[in-house]
């Protein structure tokens, strides 16, 4: 069974009858530390490392469902849904952070900086890729870049890449949009580019109609061969 040792810790380190301490290690609970260290560590590992790959994508959930899930992953001291124990620097469980990133990508929540030293796009790569025909999503990403604390750093790195001949394809970097061929689209031309891209995709999706076969010519009925002519047998 996967995560067996971690689950053994959870089974062993249980609270006493009045929920004031752990029966295995004797740790006394407090409002800030409602779990003993072994349980807190085990829950942290389970919540971050035991997520199945098919559970990692939140794109197929509706916005309403994501917000409902975000409300479930809250709590005092720890997440009441997954058990993640908060710290002074981390006040959201991994699932809650992923939900927030997905909502930001959809434009349903303001862009936030995940951690100090990271850009506003960190962990939200889908919002900075040019793979659809939605100009509004691209504009949100470009606007987020304009106020990102790492904008100057991204601009320098981008210029270095372009100077060496590297093509940036279907990405938004430092507030600049690049097409599949590496051509840069100015901010004023984003809407027109989205329309043109939509037309191209529509043409590619249209299947050519099969030619209608012409009806086969029906041969005229042959005249029956006369077996007897002029009474000759």
Please supply descriptive tags for the structure shown above.
233 residues, mainly alpha, 3-stranded antiparallel β-sheet, 7 helices, 36% helix, 3% strand, elongated
Tell me, what's the shape?
A: elongated
The neighbouring-strand order within the major sheet is 1-2-3
Strand proportion, as a percent range, falls in under 5%
Which regions have little confidence, pLDDT < 50, spanning 5+ residues? 49-55, 224-228
Helix count equals: 7
Largest sheet: 3 strands, antiparallel
Average pLDDT for all residues = 80
Report the end-to-end length measured between terminal Cα atoms: 99 Å
Please tell me about this protein's structure.
The chain has seven helices and three strands; from the N terminus they run ααααααβββα. The chain has helices at residues 4-12, 37-49, 63-72, 94-105, 135-146, 151-163, 190-205; strands at 171-173, 176-178, 184-185. With 233 residues, the chain is mainly α. The radius of gyration is 32 Å and the shape is elongated. The protein is 36% helix and 3% strand. The chain has a domain at 117-206. α1 packs antiparallel against α2 and α3 runs antiparallel to α4 (94-105). It comes from Rhodococcus opacus (strain B4). Residues 197-221 are annotated as: Disordered.
């Amino acid at each position: 069974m996967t995560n067996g040792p971690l689950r053994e810790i959870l089974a062993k380190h249980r609270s006493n009858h009045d929920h004031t301490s752990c029966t295995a290690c004797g740790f006394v609970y407090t409002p800030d530390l409602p779990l003993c260290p072994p349980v807190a560590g085990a829950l942290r590992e389970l919540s971050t490392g035991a997520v199945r790959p098919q559970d990692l994508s939140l794109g197929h959930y509706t916005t309403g469902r994501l917000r409902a899930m975000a409300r479930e992953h809250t709590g005092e001291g720890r997440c009441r849904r997954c058990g993640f124990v908060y710290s002074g620097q981390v006040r959201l469980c991994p699932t809650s952070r992923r939900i927030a990133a997905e909502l930001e990508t959809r434009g349903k929540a303001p862009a936030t900086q995940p951690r100090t030293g990271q850009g506003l796009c960190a962990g939200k790569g889908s919002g900075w890729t040019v793979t659809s025909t939605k100009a509004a999503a691209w504009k949100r990403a470009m606007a987020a870049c304009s106020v990102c604390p790492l904008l100057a750093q991204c601009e320098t790195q981008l210029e270095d890449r372009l100077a060496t001949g590297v093509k940036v394809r279907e990405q938004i970097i430092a507030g600049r949009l690049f097409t599949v061929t590496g051509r840069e689209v100015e901010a004023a031309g984003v809407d027109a580019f989205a329309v043109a891209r939509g037309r191209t995709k529509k043409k590619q999706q249209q299947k050519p109609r099969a030619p209608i076969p012409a009806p086969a010519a029906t041969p005229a009925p042959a005249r029956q061969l006369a077996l007897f002519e002029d009474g000759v047998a």
